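Run folding on both entries below.
>entry_1
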Amino acid sequence: MSLPAWSAARVVGRDEIEVGPAQARWVPLAVQIPPEEAARRGPGAHGLVFQVERMPSADVASAQLAEASTFVIPR
């Protein structure tokens, strides 16, 4: 996973998430940004996009998708 438009942002606690074939489920993620970035963007809800990649295996090709979400910076 990556956050292309938020270069200073980091997904914390997980490097990989496994989701089985035809499975759909909620996956809570924690995202952190440095205080300077929060000050620059200002308080409020900010859109962000996760770039999610399916890792290739012997019988499955890699694939990517973009998943929109919201990042809230408190006052």
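>entry_2
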Amino acid sequence: MAMVRRKSAGSKVPVLYKIMSRQEWETAQVNGIYKGSEVDRRDGFIHLSAARQVRATAQKHFSGIADLLLVSVAEAALGPNLKWEVSRGGDLFPHIYGALPLSAVSEVVPLPLVNGAHQFPEGLPS
């Protein structure tokens, strides 16, 4: 089962991020769609983060959790199901009302835990 899909070189498409477990990603691949985590389903939408938010999201909601993936999602591929809503600290966060189509995923990379902190890929905008 393939885990990593690379975005095309030089892509300037606005990207949003979802942090998920490897198991969640593998299940999404089998189903052909991602229906969200237990927290997402409870809240009624899939939580995403902008690049400037994703590190704080990892620290607040995924601290100390290993075997996570950072899933890059093309914002434009989400259409009207994407809503920007006020959340943590009054900041606007992206939420998907509905499932995440895997066709919107541009890249999936491991989010290793090193000395208790998640290590993000080089070049990730902040």
